[in-house]
Design brief:
By secondary structure, the chain is mostly helical. It has helices spanning 2-22, 26-47, 54-79, 100-103, 105-128, 135-162; strands at 94-95, 98-99. The chain is built from six helices and two strands. The N and C termini lie far apart (36 Å).
Length: 163
């Protein structure tokens, strides 16, 4: 876990610096956006206003798998030159003058927020069931992966919106 965290930290720093070199101030915006989503989600979860349910989790999985497949198709289209005039691939295609990546932004952020709800629920159930102390690493890793994914998505959305 520690090796993963160090590697992820270096990669995240390098990617962030590349984005910052193209879009001044974007890192701070992405960090604020990420903290806002994490803070609101944690607050709502801690207050009991939002919980993981079977139905919501099923919908989440359907949307997440759909977004994952969309991302794979977009990656292949960009890799094989099918979309050459746009660095964002399908995300940069405009619909009524708005890039598709910006249109999809609320869905992506909701996916990240609900993923955090699932992480918090897993940790809460682990504590309630008196899971071994080693379980804490699993919970921490799960939350950190979700937060990093959310940060990268917000960073990408901001870059698309600025383009």
């Amino acid at each position: 876990v520690l090796l993963y965290a160090v590697t992820q930290g270096f990669a995240l720093g390098a990617i962030s610096m590349v984005f910052e070199s193209f879009y001044n101030g974007i890192i701070l915006q992405a960090i604020i956006g990420t903290f806002a989503v994490v803070g609101v989600t944690l607050g709502l979860f801690a207050s009991g206003k939002i919980r993981a349910s079977k139905r919501a989790t099923k919908i989440f999985m359907i949307v997440f798998i759909g977004y994952f497949l969309y991302s794979i198709v977009n990656l292949f289209l960009m890799m094989f030159g099918a979309i050459q005039n746009n660095p964002w691939g399908l995300d940069g295609v405009e619909i009524f003058g708005i890039p598709l990546g910006v249109i999809l932004a609320p869905v992506i952020i909701l996916l990240g927020a609900y993923s955090l709800v699932l992480d918090f629920d897993m940790i809460q159930r682990g504590v309630a069931n008196k899971a071994p102390a080693a379980f804490a690493w699993t919970g921490a890793l799960s939350v950190s992966i979700t937060v990093v994914w959310l940060y990268m998505q917000i960073l990408r959305i901001l870059a698309i919106a600025r383009n």
